[in-house]
């Protein structure tokens, strides 16, 4: 991820925004949907890791469960994040 090179939180926010846009634009049955969801999940987890703000993980969990994905134990890999609302920046 570019953030790993720059260390800028704004890069992660841009990645999450782009991920949300991509997930929203791609049809539910598209063969690459899982890749889009994975990228969004990675961005949200990185935002949580860098900021400590739990709303990023909460948003990912809400999106996963709304998209029909089962809940995971805390700290587990997030396999999908469909319909993830944007958390308040803070």
The rough form would be described as: globular
Q: Count the DSSP helices.
A: 4
Low-confidence stretches: 78-84
Strand content: under 5%
Helicity range of the residues? Answer: 55-70%
Helix/strand order, N-terminal first? HHHH
Overall mean pLDDT stands at: 74
Considering the chains and any ligands shown, give keywords for the structure.
90 residues, mainly alpha, globular
Overview of this protein structure:
By secondary structure, the protein is mainly alpha-helical. The chain has one domain. The protein has four helices and no strands. The longest helix is centred in the middle third of the chain and has 19 residues. The protein is globular. The two termini are 22 Å apart.
Topology record:
Elements: H1 2-6, H2 9-25, H3 33-51, H4 54-66
How do you describe this structure in short?
The protein has helices at residues 2-6, 9-25, 33-51, 54-66. The chain is mostly helical and 90 residues long.
